[in-house]
């Protein structure tokens, strides 16, 4: 293009730079714009906006502001894209106060921020727990009569639910829907989670039904929240109904769904049902993970069926699955339960050799098992190891 005579319009250069930026080759864009400057190819506002965007993606918002100064110097009027890009760049760097100030300052200068500007700020504020400031930004949007959508409300609803302010979240949800704003999946899921966290599973189930009435298809996450909560409440029949409803709607249960079911059966000492669910998961093409195995191993250990637990542990190793500290600690506890503390001690050494560090719970369980089974020499040796590692002995004891 630069060898052509006459040179193509800057519009064509900008189109090319846009494609390169979308491919995330931000440094390349910057280099090419510098070449354009050397060849005296005058940029337009779109070219400079792309340059601001690339600097922001490279965490150089300071250079993005330099480009903004150039935009003004060349007599261009910064548009929403210019401002929004800088606001987003500041938010990505965690400079949220600066982002809010920039939006306000540009607004005072006549460069009005739009709904996207505030949506970026709201999202960033919620991520750092500044929910009150996010609500203030939402109020500014409402006062400015911006056309709002669910994306403006969702981060705040999610943040309120995470903070345990469920009543406030539901009020905001009600305000949103009363304005005729259609909620979406990302509106409902935090509310379902929040209701379940407080044990309001019936209200959570109603929200799932309400989603369907609004033609919003619940996803696997929506059902997982509900199924997990019902299982924790010991409502196995209701959990199975939710699971059946999930499958009827063509939503495949994932690893989290199955793990919740397996854990519930293990807690109730229904190991045959737990194994059946484990095998069903495999048949459905959902590969068990370390958590799946650890849950099942824990169930066997609590039932003092140590042989089955060991078999599962070896199955994990055969599948090149790396046991974590929970897996090892569970099996160590199992050995201690059946009066085999020396086997537990040997497993501790295997654990350390594999590079997995025992935690305080691991040591406490093993120390208790050694002393209760009369292995005082080994127990004192382990105690000295704990002292040498400067762990909190009081917690272990």
Automatic annotation (TrEMBL):
Keywords: Repeat. The keyword Repeat applies. PPR repeats lie at residues 44-78, 79-113, 114-148, 149-183, 184-218, 219-253, 254-288, 289-323, 324-358, 359-393. It holds the Pfam family PPR_1. It comes from the Eukaryota. GO terms for biological process: chloroplast-nucleus signaling pathway; mitochondria-nucleus signaling pathway. InterPro entries: PPR_rpt. The keyword Repeat applies. One of its GO terms (cellular component) is chloroplast. Belongs to the PPR family. P subfamily. This is Pentatricopeptide repeat-containing protein. It comes from Carya illinoinensis (Pecan).
């Amino acid at each position: 293009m630069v060898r052509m005579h006459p040179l193509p319009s800057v519009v064509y250069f900008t189109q090319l730079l846009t494609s390169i930026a979308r491919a995330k080759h931000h440094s390349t864009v910057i280099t090419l714009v510098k070449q354009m400057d050397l060849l005296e190819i005058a940029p337009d506002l779109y070219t400079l906006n792309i340059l601001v965007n690339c600097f922001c993606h490279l965490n150089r918002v300071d250079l993005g502001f330099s480009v903004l100064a150039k935009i003004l110097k060349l007599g261009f009027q910064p548009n929403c894209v210019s401002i929004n890009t800088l606001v987003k760049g500041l938010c990505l760097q965690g400079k949220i106060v600066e982002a809010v100030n920039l939006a306000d300052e540009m607004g005072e200068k006549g460069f009005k921020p739009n709904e996207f500007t505030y949506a970026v700020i709201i999202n960033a504020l919620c991520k750092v727990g500044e929910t009150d400031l996010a609500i203030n930004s939402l109020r500014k949007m409402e006062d400015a009569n911006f056309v709002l959508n669910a994306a403006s409300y969702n981060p705040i609803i999610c943040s309120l639910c995470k903070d345990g302010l469920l009543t406030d979240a539901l009020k905001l949800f009600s305000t949103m829907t009363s304005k005729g704003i259609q909620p979406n999946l990302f509106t409902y899921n935090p509310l379902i989670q929040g209701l379940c966290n407080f044990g309001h599973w019936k209200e959570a189930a109603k929200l799932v039904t309400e989603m369907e009435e609004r033609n919003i298809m619940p996803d696997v996450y929506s059902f997982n929240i509900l199924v997990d909560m019902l299982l924790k409440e010991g409502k196995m029949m209701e959990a199975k109904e939710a699971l059946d409803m999930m499958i009827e709607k063509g939503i495949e249960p994932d690893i989290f769904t199955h793990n919740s079911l397996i854990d519930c059966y293990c807690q109730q000492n229904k190991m045959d049902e737990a194994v059946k669910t484990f095998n069903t998961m495999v048949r459905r093409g959902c590969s068990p993970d370390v958590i799946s195995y650890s849950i099942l191993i824990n169930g066997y250990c609590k039932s003092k069926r140590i042989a089955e637990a060991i078999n599962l542990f070896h199955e994990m190793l055969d599948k090149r699955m790396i046991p974590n500290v929970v897996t090892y600690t569970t099996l160590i506890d199992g050995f201690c339960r059946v009066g085999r503390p020396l086997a537990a001690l040997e497993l501790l050494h295997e654990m350390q050799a594999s590079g997995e560090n025992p935690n305080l719970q691991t040591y406490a369980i093993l120390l208790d098992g050694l002393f209760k089974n009369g292995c005082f020499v080994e127990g004192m040796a382990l105690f000295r190891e704990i002292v040498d590692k400067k762990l909190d002995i009081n917690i272990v004891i």
